[in-house]
């Protein structure tokens, strides 16, 4: 039996992991999907100052108060890029392996917003200002993003529209603050939007990708949507099972 902590990316809560969590529990594992502050069933707790530090504390407290050890710490997208390495950096003795779902750790001093291309960064800032009261990034047009995606179970898009909530913008603009404590931990990258070959090409040319090239890094390709917990949950669960 392994212990998993599952962290969702932007706009989502623990509910997004339901099929993956059920699969892993069916294999005998201890699974803790977590809604970060301001997300999912904790949406009412969002504040203007809800930032990356808030979300890091959410995970540290879960691990501490549930007395979890040898944790396979799984982060999708934003949670992988920012939250997972920070948690591992502060509590490396509790982490067995880090798993990044279509994501990778950002370098010290970089924020999630800075990773986006300039045009996307500008567009998001406008959305926050015009539709998010200056402090939240509204959910994306899910039906548009899913156009052409195969394998989505019936009702998935309806659930995404109904349950996703605005992302506290400070979580995107807070820079990562890391020491070197996390760097020796094993890590797995599950690649959906990029192939291993494409990632290795970016490692050589894009500084933000440099932490994806280490002796402790392994890669698994799972081609499909950026949100594999929806279009390929069984295959994702199998990969996570193997990661233990």
Automatic annotation (TrEMBL):
PANTHER family: AB HYDROLASE-1 DOMAIN-CONTAINING PROTEIN-RELATED (PTHR37017), ESTERASE_LIPASE_THIOESTERASE DOMAIN-CONTAINING PROTEIN (PTHR37017:SF11)
Any one Gene Ontology molecular-function term assigned to this protein's record: catalytic activity
Ranges of residues in domain AB hydrolase-1: 5-238
Domain of life: Bacteria
InterPro entries for the chain: AB_hydrolase_1, AB_hydrolase_fold, Sec-Metab_Biosynth_Hydrolase
Native organism: Streptomyces melanosporofaciens
Name this polypeptide is given: Pimeloyl-ACP methyl ester carboxylesterase
